[in-house]
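User: Can you predict the 3D structure for this chain?
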Amino acid sequence: MARIRVMGEADIDAVAALRVRGWRSAYAGIIPQDFLDRMSAERDAQRHRARFASSRGKTVDLVSVGEDDTPVGWICCGPYRGETDSGDVGEVYALYVEPTRMGTGLGRALLDAAHRHESARGFATWQLWVLQDNARARKFYAAAGYAADGAVESDVYGDTAVAEVRYRRPAP
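Assistant: Here is the predicted structure, written as structure tokens:
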């Protein structure tokens, strides 16, 4: 099993490339292929640098690294970004694992580590959004104690609206 640590600025390029590979693998047949083909690790790294610089202390980024200390998994989480009656809701913003390592327990280890890392914030509930047609991810989150709560939104990729469902679970 890979080691999990807090992500540093030096990890941004590797995490951006991992995220692009993750999208292309997990969302093939769900997100329009031309959108996936146009994704760029370099552009993604630029966005990550801007977010990383502006969100210190607000979000946590953890990486799972292989023997060479290169990220093979990444999770980002923090306070829920939507409307809430209180500040005690956490959100998993993103979770990606190297496609060749999916199904190895790495994603679950990252999710558990994020829950533990953020326990000091006192979140009573965790939420996340998952593509409605991403059966593998939905099964993964259900196995981790998350359940769809009935909320649905759509994002548009190219000319295609893609539905996302919100999942939630009590804090561990």
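The chain has five helices and seven strands. The two ends are 22 Å apart (CA to CA).
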